[in-house]
Recover the amino acids of this structure.
């Protein structure tokens, strides 16, 4: 399998971001990404997809959108859509119809920042998801960096500290969202793919001659990423590479990583049975027994969970092995110490044992 690193959920000058598509691509290339997935609010910007290459480094820019009903004062129910072939914002008033239309156009749909707190100090409302009768979506945004900022900024000193030092703020996905993810998979008895979103805007503050940039694109692109496992390397062909990326996301052949402390490249979570080896996102029969294996890029804290509960845990290992015949939804969490705190590092998509 070929591992690539992708950042998603970001905004340009076409909505409420402060950079052009070319600026975001240049920042992504500097950050060492293989691709970025841009999602402006309620606008599908055409003609911006393609490769940026400098020397041997190459980055693919793909464009989707983040759709919500702009007629609502609350601004709830934001849906990230990627791989769509037409503008879908007109379907925003009905989240189920929006999801259906996205599916019909071949798109992937992820519920954006499903849990979120308001931030009154900045006049920011909570843009969480409310319509949980909706079905048929691809997955949810498990870790949204800006939603985490709103939750962690509980006082003026913390607001200032976290606004200027992203690396001190980023800690882990919201507990409510982790719990929700496990509940959704068990409730619907189907895969719910998890992605991590930077929700990048590159906020700019200007006071006379003073200009301050908060959360620059490049810094955020080095933080919360999605590592995708592809059946073959990217080729430089836009259509083929787009399909490889979207197929991996759709299948959940991916994991979320906080790459700023240390790159998570090389993490693997697999399971073996009589039929062979299976990867994150796969479904596998547990009848004849399963051997789960986790391999980490360094010795640290790793947990294997089944249906949301820990079944095995090591605090200082590079490898975790677990033998079972028990069906369930198995996923991995990895933590490491960084800047004086025990922080989340990796969240795998599950392997579904039937």
């Amino acid at each position: 399998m070929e591992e690539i690193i992708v950042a998603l959920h970001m905004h340009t000058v076409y909505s409420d971001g402060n950079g052009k598509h070319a600026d975001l691509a240049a920042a992504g290339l500097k950050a060492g990404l293989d691709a970025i997935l841009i999602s402006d609010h309620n606008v599908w910007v055409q003609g911006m997809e393609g490769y940026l290459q400098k020397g041997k480094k190459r980055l693919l820019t793909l464009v989707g959108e983040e759709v919500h009903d702009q007629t609502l004062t609350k601004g709830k129910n934001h849906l990230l859509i990627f791989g769509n072939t037409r503008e879908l914002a007109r379907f925003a008033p009905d989240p189920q119809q929006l999801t259906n239309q996205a599916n019909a156009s071949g798109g992937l749909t992820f519920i954006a920042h499903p849990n979120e707190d308001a931030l009154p100090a900045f006049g920011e409302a909570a843009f969480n998801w409310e319509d949980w009768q909706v079905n048929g979506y691809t997955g949810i945004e498990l870790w949204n960096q800006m939603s985490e900022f709103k939750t962690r900024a509980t006082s003026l000193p913390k607001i200032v500290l976290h606004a200027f030092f992203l690396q001190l703020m980023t800690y882990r996905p919201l507990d409510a969202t982790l719990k929700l993810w496990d509940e959704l998979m068990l409730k619907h008895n189907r895969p719910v793919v998890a992605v991590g979103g930077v929700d990048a805007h590159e906020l700019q503050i200007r006071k006379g001659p003073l200009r301050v940039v908060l959360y620059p694109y490049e810094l955020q692109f080095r933080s919360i990423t999605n590592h995708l496992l592809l059946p073959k390397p990217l080729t430089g062909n836009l259509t083929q590479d787009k399909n490889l990326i979207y197929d991996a996301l759709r299948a959940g052949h991916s994991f979320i990583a906080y790459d700023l402390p240390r790159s998570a490249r090389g993490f693997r979570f697999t399971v073996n049975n009589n039929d062979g080896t299976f990867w994150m996102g796969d479904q596998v029969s547990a009848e004849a027994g399963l051997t789960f294996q986790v391999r980490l890029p360094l010795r640290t804290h790793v947990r294997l969970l089944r249906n949301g509960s820990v079944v095995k845990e090591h605090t200082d290992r590079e490898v975790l092995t677990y033998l079972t015949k028990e069906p369930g939804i198995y996923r991995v969490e990895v933590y490491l110490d960084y800047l004086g705190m025990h922080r989340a590092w990796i969240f795998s998509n599950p392997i579904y044992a039937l």
